[in-house]
Write a structure and sequence with these properties.
The chain is of the alpha+beta class and about 350 residues long. It is built from twelve helices and 14 strands. The chain has one domain: Hypothetical protein YwqG fold. About 30% of the residues lie in helices and about 20% in strands. The longest helix is centred in the N-terminal third of the chain and has 18 residues, at about 100-115.
Amino acid sequence: MNYAHSQEIARALEPVLEDAALAQQLAAQARPAVWLQTTAVEDEAEIASGSTKLGGCPDLPAGVAWPERGRYPDHEQRVKPHRDDSLAPDSRWRWARPEQVQLFRKEALQHVARLESTFPLSFVAQINFAEARSAGTLDADFPESGLLSVFYDLMEQPWGFDPADACALKLIFSEGDAEFERRPQPPALLELPDHCQLAPMACELHACVTALPLESAQWGSQGLALDEEQRDRFVEWWFDDAQNAASSGGEDSGCHRIGGWPTPVQGDMQTECALVAAGHYCGNGDAYADEATRAVRDTATQWLLLLQIGSDEKGGMGWGDAGQLYLWMRRDDLRARRFDRARLVLQCC
């Protein structure tokens, strides 16, 4: 079951908060979304060109190159652990057989080679906005039509809390009248391990309404407040209620969705996106506590969830430990279709 309108959220929250007015106030923050119910397909040709799908091969306009990333800005830092693995003595892997040790070294060297060169990004998803709007309501600033193609560094899988992670994500937005051709994966991607091979999944699109999560900058900006007991009950409700908690498998709205609010696995992503986009490292708490970043943090509510992609075993899609991949954009950038300014966040248990 998924929420169909905000009053369902209000009715669910009233006994939790024991405050009808506060339940209505929180329900008013709900946002519409379209969620994706996925089905594995044996033959990708079953999925029409330009349709919404996850995994497989992208549909791109003629002349649009397959996106690549160059070296990461923090290249040496990323390469070092893999290079160390390739040179480590056998004693590091006392538990492994000799042939396994050689395989570990080989894989480490292969990863170093990929990081040291320009490398194609993996295709993750494409969203047809005309299909999405036919299925349900989206924020007014989302496109009315067009195809958004998502590419990501599946081998490295950066978390997004470092400004250096930006080159791991590439979004291609094609206008609604574009003519598409299905592109085969580059040979370099076909050589990646099995966990980096995403099988095609067809998507059936459904409308829903999403509740405001506790881990959001929106609470402070709207003057929303819970006392300690209400907060504890809200957290319990959030994680116990199937309509709210993050899920996997593409069977409900907690897994894959377009727009709305996210189902966070960890913490607030709006503030993280604002800080990282401004060049601040968010792998620890320093930037959140620094008074010098307050002006940046105050812009957090400008960030909207563009897309959430959950773990989905039938497509070989997994983000850490049953995690979620989230794409965010500032509202002004979304209006101007500046998809190159989107930020990525990966969260898992």
